[in-house]
Write a structure and sequence with these properties.
Aldehyde Oxidoreductase, domain 3, 30% helix, globular, 3 domains, 28% strand, alpha+beta, D-amino Acid Aminotransferase, Chain A, domain 1, Rossmann fold, four-stranded parallel β-sheet, 18 strands
Length: 397
């Protein structure tokens, strides 16, 4: 299974499957996309689209996922089978759904049982503690003094589940909630490919998080690859490798961590293709990211493409730094035809909604992408483009 033409059709499923669908289509795969939005560019990349949840919910509907996978499996019995499906964002906290889905259509990624162990706070942080790996202090029960603590949900994604004290919840904490001491510094991630035994780190990224109401750390995008000191790159790589062996990680993944000067603190592992995969472009003539994902999962092969973990000697910049920024609605709006056309013409826009789509406050509108020679330059361009776009849309509305 070395080439895309041998794969023919794969399915990609996520809250938003556009990045995976585009990457797979560009590598010659025929793609079936399962997500919440059915954005214009997702439909363009995929041969088919199947909805698996309501756009405003930002939550995958399990029954819709299983129905879609059963439909694909049944259709494949008559020819042109879907070889398997890749689970992206939104599935990291759904090991039971992954297991049910894998019984219907082969899952190409980290096994559901491994995801279940990885997303169990006691197991994950217990492993880090046993192997003296750095992480912000964790409690499985609420601290007596909540000052300086965060409450997190190991089944959540995108930072929407993180709360400051005092915590307001409609339901009491469950076994997958935990409490973590807030750590100063810069939120970062390492994008890597795993084969269950070893890793190939593609590079390091700075994550962009912002406050949305009571949610202090919502993921809004990433910039990368960015250079990091060799000893930090080596340390994070060794941690990713140890976690890969312990939890049998396979395919595209990311390791989220805080960096405070020379100190790091591991936050979590996303055992699925991360949003940061969009920051990496491989040289022409080499297998792309989706092929690399499949090769690692199905054959245990890791890429030979050089990692982007170091900058130019004595410099703070990399030659090709990419940035992605999720643009959220600042007020309720409906996208009319004029606004949809303007959005489609905006430089570097992705995840394009169609005319007539309605958005509530804090709903994702689209994603912006830019390039630059440094992380600072990319962030400035993203901020400027986001603000101009929002003002422009609000003027039309």
């Amino acid at each position: 299974m070395k080439h895309a033409r041998e794969m023919q059709t794969i399915a990609v499923a996520a809250i938003s499957a556009r990045a995976m669908a585009e990457a797979a289509a560009n590598e010659g795969f025929k793609v079936v996309a399962l997500d919440l939005f059915g954005d214009i560019d997702t439909l363009r990349a995929a041969s088919r689209w199947l909805p698996i949840g309501a756009p405003g919910s930002l939550h995958i509907d399990a029954a819709s996922v299983l129905a879609a996978l059963r439909q694909l499996a049944k259709e494949g019995e008559g020819g042109d089978p879907v070889v398997g499906w890749i689970a992206g964002s939104g599935f990291e906290g759904e090991p039971d759904l992954l297991q049910e889905g894998a019984a219907v259509l082969p899952l190409i990624g980290t096994a559901p049982d491994a995801v279940r162990r990885l997303r169990d706070p006691a197991t994950f942080f217990g492993f880090l503690a046993a192997h003296v790996m750095p992480y912000p202090q964790v409690l499985l029960q609420p601290p007596e003094d909540p000052a300086g603590w965060l409450m997190k949900d190991a089944h959540g994604c995108g930072g929407w589940h993180v709360r400051h004290a005092p915590w307001s919840m409609d339901e009491p904490p469950t076994s997958h909630h935990y409490f973590q001491r807030e750590m100063p510094g810069l939120p970062m991630s390492a994008t890597f490919i795993a084969n269950g035994h070893d890793v190939h780190v593609l590079g390091f990224n700075e994550m962009n998080v912002r406050r949305f109401g009571t949610r202090p750390f919502v993921f809004c995008g990433a910039v990368g690859p960015v250079p990091v000191p060799e000893h930090i790159a080596s340390r994070v790589t060794s941690i990713a490798r140890a976690l890969t062996v312990e939890f049998e990680l396979r395919g595209l993944c990311s390791l989220d961590f805080m960096r405070d000067g020379e100190t790091i603190g591991v936050l979590e592992v996303n055992p699925r293709p991360p949003a940061s995969m969009s920051l990496y472009r491989w040289p022409a003539g080499t297998p792309g990211l989706m092929q690399a994902h499949l090769r690692a999962c199905l054959h245990g092969e890791l890429p030979s493409t050089p990692s982007r973990t170091q900058g130019k000697k004595g410099a703070q910049d990399t030659e090709d730094t990419e940035g992605i920024e999720i643009v959220f609605a600042r007020r309720p709006m409906e996208l009319d035809a004029a606004a949809a056309r303007q959005l489609a013409a905006w430089p570097g826009v992705r995840d394009l909604p169609g005319a007539g789509q309605r958005f509530d406050i804090d709903d994702p509108l689209c994603t912006l992408t830019v390039s630059g020679t440094s992380a600072n330059e990319v962030r400035a361009r993203l901020n400027e483009s986001r603000e101009r776009l929002l003002k422009s849309l609000e003027t039309l509305a």
